[in-house]
Design goal:
Layout: E1 4-7, E2 14-17, H1 19-28, E3 36-40, E4 45-55, E5 58-68, E6 77-82, H2 88-98, E7 103-108, H3 119-135, E8 143-144, E9 148-149, E10 159-162, H4 170-173, E11 180-184, H5 192-200, E12 203-206, H6 218-229
Parallel strand pairs: 1-3, 6-7, 6-11, 7-8, 7-9, 10-11, 10-12
Antiparallel strand pairs: 2-5, 3-4, 4-5
The structure holds S-adenosyl-L-homocysteine (SAH).
S-adenosyl-L-homocysteine (SAH) binds next to loops.
């Protein structure tokens, strides 16, 4: 069986694991002295660590070996994601992490039904990204940024906005040598003025096919097309 992967703030020769991670290891996985784990810091470093001592609330690890780890896309992908109803933002953050996104930026658009993202919700999304990164064995944890107004989206080097009225396909324009920004709209769609503004900022409108996808399906479909264009 593959060793358990534990997220640590910093990889050092000796690490004292506390909090959730330590509780999970002690109570769910019943870690014992001598067990081997893989530690990762979310910044591109991994290591092999041995459990050397268990104290109440703290598990001591000795790191035996480290290596740079990359399971990242060849160029970074930023996903600008319209605020969504219910728990759909969380679902998208989880799937986007699995698909290799580097950062998710929640966006407030004209037709968003949900109009705010509390600090608690943002922190929960960041926790979901971290958990998903761990589960899919990514070495980097994507960041989930605070909410931006759509008009604050910066100019991008290469960008695609999913737009049902577009006819261009992502792979017709995609350049795998450049960082990519993606944007998908809310349940009510993007307004023509918003699409026009995004075009000025460097986004090309693209179609995801003849069927209208749900607002939580569209970002996953768009990300899959981009990773496929990278050669996965
Ligand atoms: N009633 C809305 C549909 C919104 S679907 C409208 O007509 O625009 C939510 C978001 O998913 C859209 O803003 C778009 O970004 C994306 N999307 C859904 N289906 C799509 C498709 N077939 N092609 C491109 N983008 C799509």
């Amino acid at each position: 069986m593959r060793p358990h992967r534990a997220f640590v703030e910093k990889i050092a020769p000796r690490i004292g694991l506390t909090g959730r991670e330590a509780r999970h290891l002690a109570q769910v996985l019943r870690a014992r002295k001598g067990d081997i784990l893989t530690v990762f810091d979310g910044q591109g470093l991994e290591g092999r660590a041995q459990v050397v001592a268990l104290e109440p609330g703290c598990i001591w690890l000795q790191v035996e070996e480290t290596w740079p780890a990359s399971r990242e896309t060849p160029q970074p992908i930023t996903l600008y994601l319209a605020l969504l109803k219910g728990d759909h933002l969380a679902e998208v953050v989880r799937a986007a992490t699995e698909l290799g996104v580097e950062q998710v930026v929640p966006i407030l658009c004209q037709h968003c039904v949900v109009r705010e993202l509390s600090q608690a919700k943002l922190e929960r999304l960041q926790r979901i990204a971290r958990e998903a990164a761990k589960q899919c064995q990514r070495s980097r944890v994507p960041t989930v940024q605070p909410l931006l107004f759509l008009k604050e989206v910066p100019r991008v080097e290469q960008g695609f906005v999913a737009h049902p009225q577009a006819s261009l396909l992502v792979h017709q324009r995609f350049d795998p040598q450049r960082p990519t920004a993606l944007l998908t709209g809310p349940e009510g769609g993007l307004s023509p003025a918003e699409v026009a503004l995004l075009e000025e900022r460097g986004f090309t409108p693209v179609t995801l096919g003849p069927r209208i996808l749900r607002a939580e399906t569209a970002p996953v479909a768009l990300l899959s097309l981009v990773t496929a264009a990278f050669g996965l």
